[in-house]
TrEMBL record:
One of its GO terms (molecular function) is exonuclease activity. SMART domains: EXOIII (SM00479), RRM (SM00360). It comes from Oreocharis arfaki. CDD domains: REX1_like, RRM1_NEFsp. This is REXO5 exonuclease. The keyword RNA-binding applies. The gene is Rexo5.
Amino acid sequence: QEKSCRLSAALLGEGSEISQEQLYELLKYAALGKCHKAAQPSWCRIYHQSHLAGVVVVVLHEMSQLHFYRFYLQFKHLRRVFRHRFTLTPSANFPVSLYGEGTNLKPPNTPQGLTSTSSECITKSSDLQCDPIIQRYGEKKQGLTGYTLTLEEQKKNDYPIEGSPGCKGYISTECDQQRTDSSPLFGLDCEMCLTAKGNEVTRVSLVDARGQCLLNELVKPQSAVVNYRTRFSGITKKMLLPVKTRLSDIQTRLKKMLPHDAVLVGHSLNSDLQALEMIHPSVIDTSLLFARSEGRRFKLKFLAKAVLGKEIQCEQKLGHDPTEDARAALELAQFFIEQGPTKVAELNLEMLLTAEKLAEVSQNKAALQPQGCGFQEQLNEPPPLSKPCFLDCLQVTGQKPLLLGRQGLDSSGLCQSNLSTSNKQILQRALEDVPLSKFSIIQFSLGPEYIASHLHAGLYEKVRSKLTDMLTIYAGPFEENFCMKSVKKEFGRCGPIQSLTVVTETFQPYVCIQYEVLEAAQLAVESLNGAEVAGSCIKVQRPVTAAMLDCNVLIKELELDVENEGVIYVAGLKKSLTETDLQEEFSQLKDLETLFLPKDLQSGKPRNCCFLKFQKPQSAMDALEAINGWTMKGSELRSRNALAPGHLWRWIWQMNHNNGKQGKHIFYEKMEQLADSEQDLRKKVKKLDHHIKKLYRSLQSNTLCVVLFPGVSSTHGSQSGLGLMGIKDDEGRSAC
């Protein structure tokens, strides 16, 4: 049964920035798993990493979080597909930050100046013909029946065969050979002791296709034990003393447990069946499945680590765990069947085994060196870098990385500089080469004409100005001597207010209110327009400017944003309430997953609103109906669908507090220059979004895709980056 990979990220909270090191941590684990000491990232979690079909990183060169929200409507695909987003700390040297220091990839010359290491890093079909796996199974994927041993192969590898002279008295499982590609798989492993009779079973384990243990039984040998082989079997004399189960009991149980079309999987399974004195027609032997030349075989421990990223048969344990070994063999067979011979051959297991042996030799030699005279020094080689690049690790494992781009990655030496290649050419190359690579980095760019610092400054001011307008509402008219306290109280029930001023230019007084969160401003427009406040029937509206003409469209799209799915905003809370209080108050709501209580980033005081995330969108809709009109601690609550995730809320707060009430025409001249190119820029962004959509649709299911707006860090100022990520599911969406 195929396992689906899942991504879990606690990113709803206050939207803390993710550092380059944390991003590196994620990519390294996604690419390598537990091999090469890669650990689960500290800020998110990947479930079933070994089942990832690949990792694809799309880098949007010289673009920042600013670009995403300035052209939010144009990034239609990105905002509707990727469920997880995070603010990314900008870096002055992004390629090195991403790929890590010490990268040794040497890019070859590629046609038309296309920046790529694919020619060197991707094993083409012609290079795989000599691989023993391809020679045995061909390049195309097959069902499990294509990998079961034939009768001749069983005879050649000493499997017990019906009617063979050496199998007299053996018990048949009575399973037939009518197996199909949907026949059930079972992992089997036995531990043996040496007795006067020879090898006899002392422990048997059987697991089903999901890895669930069906049988794990100690067995009393018929003859006297000569050697318990405790170091390998884990069996001791004391363990077997109370055991009553005999081999015949196990044989009977296995016959009952296995369906007629069962396929047994094991590593050197012939030894297990010989010890069990049983005959079974349908077997997959992982020691033969992962074929090597000249009749050699990979050890199960090595395969589990190299292919599955799992450590088994650890030295700390006393002997082997047959259930662990049976499960490892089963998962190896499932991996081979799911991925096919070509993908397995591309792992280049021989290279990995060689690298592992060399590493052991180096460690042993280093351990023998006197202090201050290391192995590297003896070879007159420079000392290793403190932070090895995970792309180097990928090459060692045979998982060949692909790098494609149009901008020079000069500082890392990974790619050649060539600005002539178009995004369209890069996309075409990516569609061809990404399926061949376990790890790919694809870099697109808007072009050098759009990365000037003055354009960034103008873009920033436009985004800040628009967000400020969206956070602002005008209410009125009021009577001449209206009560400001009543107005502040009523509008404060919609959410935290940043500023409240009286507009005196009008015939009757109006009030200008700027909120801290988008939801509060929208709630005020929706709930208080036409209401009676401070003795007057008022109108509530946002500023009317050219930039605000598409405000309603933007609000609607923010509501539909996949990241806001199942999230609602609740206002009108008393500031004395803590997260614990709120958890208790909202505990009756069905499927509540997370509660986030925003706090002032300077004082740390909680605001009078919160966000609730539910496991199911319908539960969020039900909660909306239930909460509106609730009274909590004497305060009436108001709620609506969420508009801004945690990272955007934090960014808005920083924009408002860093810039305060600076004039909107500070960058007037720069904005004039920007206006000439912005229409063309919108078209380019829309096309870029389409390129990413096309690339994403071509990816296999269970592929982790990360889209990065790296941010900008220079002497002219810095802009935070943005990351979007998700694991593609069977329906082409980004799985949670």
